[in-house]
Design brief:
By secondary structure, this protein is mainly alpha-helical. The chain is about 55% helix and about 10% strand. The protein is built from 4 helices and 2 strands. A two-stranded antiparallel ribbon has the order 1-2. A hairpin with a 2-residue loop joins strand 1 and strand 2. The protein is globular, with a radius of gyration of 13 Å.
């Protein structure tokens, strides 16, 4: 399951060119992997603020919004689900 999620995260979005391997891209991949690890350890759904707390990020609005954007992107790709507005969880196996 983790390999599948990792592969899906590496796929480009439809209609967009494949980005080059830059330092910021690698840090984004690490951020997505860290977010998925938080959900793997969590017992249930989380909001962006809860993910930030689990990742030991500062609870500044910018950090919460950046995590929320990543969560929305993961939900859009089907890696996470959003059963309720702003609430994210792993899909049922």
């Amino acid at each position: 399951m983790r390999i599948t999620r990792k592969t899906l995260l590496e796929l480009p979005e439809p209609g967009r060119p494949i980005p080059s391997a830059t330092g910021s891209e690698l840090s984004d991949k690490a951020a997505y992997q860290e977010i998925l690890a938080v959900f793997a350890d969590a017992g249930g759904p989380l909001r962006a603020r809860g993910v930030c707390e689990a990742m030991d990020l500062d609870l500044a609005p910018n950090h919460i919004n950046n995590v929320r954007i990543k969560l929305k992107r993961l939900a859009g790709r089907g890696i996470l689900t959003e059963p309720e507005l702003g609430l994210f969880t792993l899909p049922w196996p």
